[in-house]
Amino acid sequence: MEELPDNAGFEEADDAEDDDEENIKADSASESGQPDRDQPGGEDAQMEEKTRISDDEEEGFRTTIPSSASVTDISGTLSMPAVTSSTTASRKPLAASSTSKGSSLSMRRSVVENQQNTLSLQPREVDAFWLQRTVSSHFPDPLVAQSKTAEAFDILTTATGHRDCENQLMALFEHSHFDLVKLLTKNREMIVWRTRLARANADDREGLINQVKEKGLEWILEDAHQTENGKREAMDVDDKGRVVNGDAEMEDSKENIPRENAPTDSLVPQEILDLDLLAFERGNHQMSNKRCKLPEGSLKKTKKGYEEIHVPAPKPKPFDVGENLIPISSLPKWARMVFSTTQNLNRVQSRVFPTAFKSDENMLLCAPTGAGKTNVAMLTMLRTFENFRDPDTGRINLDDFKIIYVAPMKALVQEQVTNFSERLGGLGIAVGELTGDRQLTKAQIVATQVIVTTPEKWDVITRKGTDRSYTSLVRLVIVDEIHLLHDERGPVIESIIARTVRHVEQTKENVRLVGLSATLPNYTDVAAFLRADPKTGLFFFDNSFRPCPLKQQYVGITEKKALKRFQMMNQVTYDKVVEEAGRNQVLVFVHSRKETAKTAKMIRDMAIENETIGKFLKEESASRAVLQEEAKSVKDRELEDLLPYGFAIHHAGMTRSDRGSVEDLFRDRHVQVLVSTATLAWGVNLPAHTVIIKGTQVYNPEKGHWVELSPQDILQMFGRAGRPQFDQTGEGIIITSHAEIQYYLSLLNQQLPIESQMISKLPDHLNAEIVLGNVRNREEAAQWLSYTYLFIRMLRAPNVYQVSKADLANDKYLRQRRVDLIHSAATVLDKCNVLKYDRRSGKFQVNELGRIAAHYYITHRSMATYNQHLKPRLGQIDLFKVFALSEEFKYIPVRESEKLELAKILERVPVPIKEGVEDPTAKINALLQAYISGLKLEGFALMADMVYVTQSAVRILRALFEVCLKRGWAQLAFMLLDMCKMVEKRQSKSMSPLWQFKHISSMEIIRRLERKDFPWERYYDLSPQELGELVGAPKLGKALYKLVHQIPKVNLQAHVQPVTRSLLRIELTITPDFQYDYEKVHGGAETFWIMVTDVDDEVVLYHDIFYIKAQYVEDDHYVTFTVPLFEPLAPVYYIYVISDRWLHSETRLPVSFKQLILPDKYPPHTELLDLQPLPTSALRSKEFEQIYRKAIKQFNPIQTQAFNHLYLSNESVFIGAPPGSGKTICAEFAILRLWSEESKSRAVYIAPNRGTCENRLEEWRSKFSNVLGGKNIVSLTGDSATDLKLLEQGDLIICTP
To answer: What is the DSSP string of 902-934?
Structure first.
């Protein structure tokens, strides 16, 4: 036995990250002129805190990422180092010291002059980030600096006068920063306008310059044109980022551009990065730590064929002085029912209570499994309820807020929905599940206050952005298991948090973010990502806070040959189980259903062979009789064989009753050894003293091979070790290969840094932000990247992300790196035709492929494949092949052991497959068709592949359907819609439509109907008696009649009217003709597609989606739309109304044009009538007449003729007239009409360009500012936060389309 030292590491390596930080710090110190540590004054440099600063280019915010030098105190909460400022050598003193007394006067003069100089600014000094840098120099805390920068700019922009501005700034910055207030107030206009100019894009810049000139502030524009236009005339930038000046070329080196202060919009991409090479090859098994330090008392044992490492259980830490558990009675009375089963909060909950329940700040809680994190989430929910609770009536305003709880797996979602529903029901709070398996209607969402969902589902919902009716009500987002940032699904969590944080900063909506995590080493990085205050919003509790401290054993098999490795793993498993036999229950986790029975039988057989079976269940034990009796009632043969020996198995393939029996027997301590799959770890809370994880490799169909277990699975399985009510400690044993020991030691001992996996999915998430409208160009995308966890980790551990020390030293905010990453991702998307990317200007233009990819979660490479292979005249055979070519399935292989079974499937599938059995696309095609046809498979890996393929099938086919629909390919759209429904219903179109009813008791009746050669359309004409006779069972006639008429069917009528010779208006009447069953069959609404095709049924001329709701099923529905007409006129168009989810539910209506009379080819213009010009008195309002009295006395003929329609009615009007004919005054008639009827109503004026907007703003402010008590005329800027305020304040809003 070999005892390990406290800092034992199992690989020799240096702490590279710390070394890199020291080197970077030294580099930056030397560049800024700071003294070296060996030089006089070096003590200040030693005290400089190791921090990284990040800039948000657009907003001018600064974020400090705390150093990893933070320590944990004995209570387990974070103790942050004090922030100290160091005096740099480059900062000049106010006056040089002198021995002469006469120099004191000159010193004072120098001080006064210096103070005056510090209050004066030159326009060229103020760029987009001057205010941010200035505020940050006074407030080291990043969160404080961030909020004060935004508030200060808002005050400078909106304050009514100098005194008001000074008072507000003094209240914001307090008296200790009076010099900052004086600087800002003295240079107020320069700061506001120069900052706005620097942040504006090219389109808005000209308008801002005009505004500055109108205010007589031309001096502010000093160097503005020179710096913009002069550089553009003298230089040109090529694709490689080189600056070309005349005949000479010089590299855009770090010496030429001051990186520290350069905003990203001044940077051009320097290189295209290979994102695949930058992504972590090992995914969630990426280890950036090179050493694992284990607690004192850890042991290593080397045995034949394997090595063991023992880690002792940590000792619980004593209570601090004054630390007490918070009693539930201290909560408000209305909130106590939520904690009805307990008297006190536990230690973890008590410590976070002030932040969780008494504040609204963001928070991160890192605590071991079982520490009560769910109750902390509940406290934050109660805080939100309190914010919307009327203290007088006690009523919670349920319509004013939503809470989103993001859980990583569907099993956890369902568990939390049940838990929250039971606990919150008494408060009238409705809890709903929103996953891929379970949808909520809009009415259900409105009635639900707490929505529990998965990361992917919430990402999809927030990606679409079309319906913000409830996403805008979200006030609390709780992300459970946030350490999954390290997982391959991490980019999804990263994306939704970054989107939320950015949305909060732009709109100022109060959305609280709460992260719940297992213990992890770099918790300060995750807290910075969540924008949690490290002093009050960050809580870290180590494993000593686990309710039942955990002893750990790590067994690394050293055998090289597969068979010997398998045998050794079985032997070790048996040895570990026998050690606990008769003393403690053991839970063994394996990774396939078949393996549960194999492992349980192996342990039992070895125990019988070694005569140790008696240790598990004694002869005289009462449990033996219980188990023998229970074995007679179970349905699983293998379980029946194992139960009498005290062994049991558990997996999802067993019946519900068998699984329930096993859980009860184990809970009652009759079963001593339970062998289970991971479903028991996730779905059922069934702890045991000892948990053994036998092997760590699982089959991953997405990758097509066996991979290591995810960190989340390991943590969840070990979370089942130890029963607080019975055990002092629990024990977790992991049996793996020797090469993986280092990883699992790091994972389970808080030494595996959480890294970002965003680079691997950057193009897809960038596309989603572009589609959503959050990102419009390269600069905004680089700014969006600064909100991600990737950005924080690139600053903290640059070497892990292949950022060189030189790059970080010269560009400490990594602006150039972010620009290059975005440029690389956008280039990939452009090549895949998912968006249009202008490399010169950096602008993005989204297209339909990009929208479909974002909405259906399709990868950019899959969209490129579809774009390449989809053609208008493909058949169903080709469509199945296009589906099989999806990027999502690229790693699915054809194994030698599967070929025989695959060959049989290829012969049985209904749609022929051209490719041979060796081709992976043939396998994917066959698996999809086997799923539709209900064919049974034998191989485990083949079944896993089929599950993976079919999980993605509907999503991919829906995306293909929308691609064809947008392109107007009618036949492909019809076929793909049918394929979507075939997968959803698991039946082909050739089968009877009645198979869609899964609750039918007698399937033989449907088989009889299928044998009849009777067209489906004729079934609607048969009476119940005739249907009974048709199947030879008269008694079943009524039931069959009901089923036939429950399949959605509609009747159509159309009325057509030509608008012009090229446009036809269709008024469609849809009459439902089916029996609606809300409970069992149809739900809240049935969805239909309306499509209009040309005479050849080849081109979709119009399409839309249509809903028939349960309450309106008896009514006629009216839909009006227009379709194009072409010369020569076609004889007929076809209107289709097709059910979105029912096969054989479609109605086709031909619309004949034989009697259609089109308007004349060249209709005459409106005749200008010879009318007496109307005087301004026709406005019948002295105030309105005053507007025009100085300019005109009467209106021109066009204005006179349109006056009655515009000013005396509310009907819609179109005026087409040449320039200079007075159309603007016509628009003013309509505005005045609105204000005369409803003085508080808003009007919107849409102009074709910014120049027209500026002209109209100036004109109408002079005209309308004093009308009806004063009207506020505003022009939208393009900035979301500003525009939202303007929309609230404005009476007349001027904007471009």
So the answer is: HHHHHHH-SS---S-TT-HHHHHHHHHHHHHHT
Residue type, 425: G
Mean pLDDT of 687-701: 86
Q: 694-724 burial by CB neighbour count: b if 16+ within 10 A, else e?
A: bbbebbbbbebeebbbbbbbbbbbbbbbbbe
Q: Identify whether the C-beta of residue 1040 lies closer than 8 Å to the C-beta of residue 1048.
A: no
Q: What contacts 996, CB < 8 A, 6 or more positions away?
A: 985, 987, 1047, 1142, 1143
| Confidence band for 548, pLDDT divided at 50, 70 and 90 | confident
Return d(Cα 1136, Cα 1070) in angstroms, integer. Answer: 11
3-class DSSP state for residue 1297? coil
SS3 2: strand
Contact 813, 260 (CB under 8 A): yes
What is the helix (H) or strand (E) element at residue 791, kind and residue range? helix 789-796
Scan for tokens 């206009």, then name that residue: 189
Lateral strand order in the sheet of 1050-1060: 1050-1060, 1063-1072, 1117-1124
In this structure, what token pair is assigned to residue 821? Answer: 């990453």
Closest CA to 648 of 663, 668, 629: 663
In this predicted structure, the answer to whether residue 51 has a pLDDT above a threshold of 60 is no
- To the nearest 10°, report the CA torsion of 978, 983, 988, 992: -90
Phi (first) and psi of residue 942, to 5 degrees: -65, -40
Contact 1247, 1253 (CB under 8 A): yes
Q: Cα separation of 774 and 787, whole Å?
A: 13
The residues, any chain, with a CB within 8 Å of residue 771's CB and separated by 6 or more, are 463, 846, 850, 851, 854, 855
Task: Identify the pLDDT of residue 1246.
Answer: 93
Label each residue of 1117-1134 as H, E or C: EEEEEEEECCCCCCCEEE
Are 711 and 284 spatial neighbours (Cβ–Cβ below 8 Å)?
A: yes
Residue 755 is given by DSSP the state -
What would the mean pLDDT of 423-427 be, rounded to a whole number? 91
Residue 86 one-letter amino acid: S
- The CA angle 1128-1130-1136, to the nearest 5 degrees, is 150
How far apart are alpha carbons 379 and 221 in whole angstroms?
A: 53
The two structure tokens encoding residue 893: 């292989």
d(CA 540, CA 553) in angstroms, rounded, equals 24
pLDDT score, position 143: 66
Q: Tell me: cis bond preceding 1173? Omega within 30 of 0 counts.
A: no
Query: Where does the pLDDT of residue 980 fall: very low under 50, low under 70, confident under 90, or very high at 90 and above?
Result: very high
What backbone torsions phi and psi does residue 204 show, to the nearest 5 degrees? Answer: -90, -15
What is the pLDDT of the chain when averaged over all its residues? 81
Rounded to 5°, the CA angle 902-906-908 comes to 115
Q: What is the pLDDT of residues 478-516, one digit of tens each?
A: 999 898 888 888 999 999 999 999 988 887 788 999 999
Q: Sort strands 402-406 and 450-453 into parallel, antiparallel or unpaired.
A: parallel
- Region 345-357: mean pLDDT is 93
Retrieve residue 160's tokens: 């009514």
Centre a 10 Å sphere on the Cβ of residue 3 and count the other Cβ atoms it contains. 10
Of 1099-1113, 1217-1231, 1277-1291, least confident by mean pLDDT is 1277-1291
Backbone φ, ψ for residue 63 (5° rounding): -120, 130
Return all residues near 319 (Cβ < 8 A) that are at least 6 apart. Answer: 347
Reported as a single tens digit per residue, the pLDDT across 383-409 is: 999 999 998 888 999 988 999 999 988
What does the alpha-carbon distance between residue 482 and residue 487 come to, in Å, rounded to a whole number? 10
Q: What is the pLDDT of residue 443?
A: 76
pLDDT digits (tens, 9 = 90+) for 1103-1127: 999 999 888 999 999 999 999 999 8
